[in-house]
Every structure is written in structure tokens, then in C-alpha cells.
Amino acid sequence: MSELYAVILAAGKGTRMKSSKHKVLHPICGKPMIDHIVDHLERLGTSKTILVVGHLKEAVQEHLGDRALFAEQTEQLGTAHAVLQAKPLLAEKEGITLVLNGDTPLFTVETLRSFIEEHKQSGAAATVLTAELEDPTGYGRIVRRFDGSVERIVEHKDATEEERAIREVNTGTFCFDNQKLFSVIEEVKNDNAQGEYYLPDVLSLLQEQGERIAAKVIADENEALGVNDRVQLAQAEAIMRQRILHQHMVNGVTIVDPTNTYIETDVVIGEDTVIEPNTFLRGQTVIGKQCHIGPSADLTDVVVADQTVIKYAVLDQSQVADQSKVGPFTYVRPGSEIGSQTKLGCFVDVKKARIGEGSKISHLAYVGDAEVGKNVNIGCGVITVNYNGIDKNLTKIEDDAFVGCNTNLIAPVTVERGAYIAAGSTITKNVPENALAIARERQTNKLDYASKIMKKIRSKTHK
Ligand code: UD1
Ligand code: CA
Question: What is the CATH number of the domain that holds 354?
């Protein structure tokens, strides 16, 4: 079996993005462009993946860490010159070298796999992956001979009117016999419109050496999109989003309005779950079976178990167990664990809190840095006073407790099992098991005083 190596080109400035962030670090469906490519290469099992870096190299290197080897291109003199920088890492190797642009993130792993396979079968020294585009503007064109074989690739800027009419383009993805690639790459010249060393010129050089080259046309031309500016970034996002949604629907998820649903790459969703419009599922979010998510749910890195309903809510880095109800208008902040059959209702803000099975926080409450047991009822307007200006303190509410409306729980404090807190209390001390705590001013009723007080007010304001 021949070894597989990969070289990804990512040294260019990406001028057209107009960004202080490196182009390949811009996310598509929640994941930096470069990660989509590196993920695929890991699945293909490359023996070495080399990233050619230059512009903003520190950020790119830091991002990928040990997922790739790095070759530096100090001056961006063109794509052939970029590949040449990988020579010290690859020169002696026997095998296939797959070259990809860092700004073409839409190839599927299946496409790459069959491309490599076809290259192997053909025995060519090089194979280029091509695409037939409706609008080929900006791409290198594939110039074929009368017999259909590839003669050369001409860049848009160097092309004649006639050549510009060609709709078959270079996707920037090539398979090379590694030894043959590096035997000719230094002969590439830069006598062209951009004064750059073009990688596609290697194809002509190999043919001059009597080598055979091949081309494979990609089945779905959408995969060929190169991201050079923000318009293409949005196009790439739309194509990938559609692909992700399609896969979920095939897997048995109902997506009510696919044009209005945003699901990132790594999200997992169980069968018979319904996703309503304006829902965002991000990061490593996992949704169970038969859930109802949305409308307007925004979940990042949240794990939701089966049969839970979440609508008009924002949840972040938390877990929600099965058969719970969250929303409308609920905010679950990082580090929260919401138990089974719980209810978090309107204007409830939960942060770093564990809420036990069957507990209810139905309206207008802040529960932060808290451990709430099972079957607890937290009334309207309850606040865990968790921050004293310096430290965050813990509130513990044990099973079956009842916390009356508008209670302040000044942490650190514990409400023991089955305790009952009267509405309007400000609790500063622990409440023992089964106790009733009342911590508020007693009410005084001054009989027949209402008319007196009105008289007093009138005499002052209507002299
Ligand atoms: C390139 C191809 C073009 C193809 C298109 C597909 C060349 C000369 N042109 O054009 O035929 O249709 O991709 O998307 O190869 N890079 C470096 N160092 C450099 C120059 C570029 O690392 O000196 C990197 C860039 O960061 C980028 C990739 O190579 O990731 C492609 O460069 P870019 O300038 O975007 O080339 P295109 O004009 O898109
Ligand atoms: Ca490009």
C-alpha cells in the first residue's frame, strides 16, 4: 500500500477577506475552515499532513497544534512555491501527495477518498480534481486537447477570451506521485500575469517529461467553492448548512423550516426530534430522541436527553435530562445540570446550578451557584444572592423544599429537606428540615387610618 501525504496551502494573505483573522480560521458552520479539511485528512489516515504557513502563521499553528506539521513560506510567491516549502519534509518519500488549498473547505471525505482511489487506479503522475461551474470567474481553467486529455491549466488572469469561456476549473486539489512532484517543481517559472509560481504549471512540466496526467470531474460542483471573500464565505456556509440539515432529516429529524435553522457540524440529534424555526444548535450539542426544540432556541455545547421541550431559550455548556420543559424566555448558563422532568419557565436565569428531578422554577428567578434537590418548588421572584462583591457562594436547597415568592437566599445558605420559606423572606441563616422560615417585617394594620392619610395629603398639595 502506498503512503498518503497531504500538503495544505495556507500561507497567503487572503487579501480579499479584509480581515485581521487568517482566512482559514474563519468558521463555516461553527468550525474553522481548516478544521474541516484536517478532520477529513485524519479520517483518510495521512502519514503526514503538512500545512504551509506564512501570513499570520502563529495563529494558525497555535490553532492546529500537533494535528499538522508546518512548513513556512516567508514570501508568498505562489502556490508552487508554497508546495516547495514542504520539500524538506517529503523529498525522500515514496507515495502519493494530496495537495489542497486551505480555502476550499467543502469537499467531503468521500469525494477525497474516491479522488485518491482514481488517481491510484489511473497510474498517472498527477491527477487534478476539476469542477464544471456555472460561473467560473476567478478560477484556473482546464484546457483540454481534442482527445479530451488535459493539456494545461490557465489562470483566469492569464486566460484569453476563448479560454475564459471554459467552464471546467481547477479546484486546487491534486494528487501527485510525490517523487515526481518534487523532481519538477523547482522548474516552474513565474512569467505570468501575477508574477507568481503556479502549482498548476507542474502538470505541463510533468507532461514534458513524458509523464501522464489525469483529471477527475467532481460530481457535485458545490464542493469546489473557494472562499476568497465574505460573499463566498456566506455561500460556503449556506452549502454546508444545507448539507448538514439534509443529513439530519435523512436520519429521522423533522426540520420544520430548513431555510431558517442553523445546525453546526458536530451536532448530534436523535430520531423523531422536531426542530422549529430560528433554532441554533452549536458546538458539541447533543439532542436526544423525541425532543421538541424551538422555535427560537440557541444551544451551545448542551446535552439534552429524550423528550425534552425547549423553546425561546438560550442554553450554554449545560445538560438537561429527559422530559423537562425549558422556556419560553429562559437562560441556562454554563455548568448547569437540569434534572429529569423539571420545569424552567419565563425569565428564569440559571447559572452553574444543579436542579434535581421534578423541581420547578416557573417564573422570574435567578438561581446561580446552587444545588437544588428533587421536587423543590422555587416561587416567582426568588433570588440566590450568590455574590458578595468578592466571592461566589453556594446555595443549597434540599429535596421537597418550598421557597416562597420573592425570597432572597443570601449565600452561603442551606434550606434543608422539606422546609418552607414564607414569601418575601430574606434568608440569611440555614433553615432546618421541615421548618417554616419567615424572615420579613410583620404587617401592622392601622384601623380607619386610610381616610386620615388622604386628608393630610390633600391639605398639603391643594392649598
Ligand atoms: C487557486 C489556483 C486556481 C484554482 C483555485 C481554486 C493557482 C495559481 N491557482 O487560485 O487555479 O482554480 O485556487 O480555488 O494555484 N497560497 C500560499 N502561498 C502563496 C499563494 C497562495 O500558501 O504564495 C495559498 C493560499 O493561502 C490559499 C491557496 O494557496 O489557501 C490558494 O491561493 P489563492 O490565492 O486563493 O489562489 P486562487 O486565486 O484562488
Ligand atoms: Ca482561493
Answer: 2.160.10.10
